[in-house]
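Batch manifest, entry 17 of 40.
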Amino acid sequence: MHILRNLVLAFACLCSLPAFALSDEARQHLVELQSRWAEINYRLPQDEREAAFEKLAQAADQAVKTEPDAAELLIWRGIILSTWAGAKGGLGALGLVKEARSNLEAAVAIDPQALNGSAYTSLGSLYYQVPGWPIGFGDKKRAEALLQKALEINPNGIDPNYFYGDYLFRQKRYAQAREALVRAQAAPDRPGRKLADEGRRAEIRTLLSKVEAELQ
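Output type: structure tokens
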């Protein structure tokens, strides 16, 4: 399943500080998950990421147990499972992305505004990158609706604009993709997210160069 193997599920979707409802312990878990995710995704060699994400998923499980109704922790568990699926590839990744979707949907049910609507960005990314029926649940129209919802909540965010740009590029809507990626480029830095922002901006530059080549 090369489609799943090549998923660009690099979700650094935490754009704001944790909600005040989080306990100090849950807040610390959230920061630790963010930091380790960025290290694995942007610093580890490709062949080491699957095992590292699997271990991080175990930490995310424990974090969610400390505060099971915290939308922020559910979002990050979904992000970690999704990127683990991307590193794993193959049919074995389908179970992970389905579980990630369940976590993200649960987060939306609890607080759709959590982390600047990050659950919508992550869900949208899943829906356009996972294969469609009968293999998976992928749905391009659903993906666009979710990504647009994320942009309604966080119109200037680096992640919703990047993933919308990636979606548009894959749909061959190159002029619109360039607009989204330029907005992503102009997004402000996120406090405490230096490594994630550096990695995302590198991805934006790479994708934007592909878009520009198609527009020539």
